[in-house]
Amino acid sequence: MLLMGWRGATPGKVINDGGVRPGQIVFNFEGEGLLERNERAAQRTRWFIAHEMAHFWLGTSGIAYRKPSEAWITEGGAEMMAFTLLAATDHDYALAELQHAVQDCIKSATKPVISAGERHENRTFYSCGATFALAAVSAQKRKGGRDYFDFIRPLLDEHRSDRLLGSADWLTRFDAVSGDSEAGGIVKSILSVGVADPTGAIETLFQQTGVPYSRNDNKLTLSANAI
Ligand SMILES: [Zn+2]
What is the domain-level CATH number for residue 142? Predict the structure, then answer.
């Protein structure tokens, strides 16, 4: 169920925020900036709904992480599921958001992802989580999969009773799908200790799993068919 509210045309404001409960997404709109059609706000709204909806399967109302430091599994997975859904109607936007996530992950991957919460860098759970999920989807596609659901479904089935998913579970599945390549070791290093050369590490991760990209200097640019 999607509940949407209008708080009024507050001068000088464009606000859209909300939250999620099991089976329910609540979204609030406020501000005079929303009286006219606002494409940026529309994109953000569609992203929010897609991301929160993904949590019905992967996240607090579906199967949750074991520890808060493992939020990269649920936030990154929800991002990947949301981008896949959004790509069907607005491919450029979904690709740009995924690209943004990869760049943000490169910026933060010198430090361990698992302690991002303690550093108040929660965005890292989304950006590196989505980057790892992208590698997982690409490896899965080589085996005939279509999207992130094909990667995560066996884990959701396996943990239907305890309803908890941890890094070790995810990495075991990733190793199986990526053929025990270097890829799992790279994800593990970024998660637990950080890496000295994030661009190089993520480039190797992309090569090992078949993520289509090109490299110019320190930037990895995703190809249009990355999503
Ligand atoms: Zn989320």
Answer: 1.10.390.10
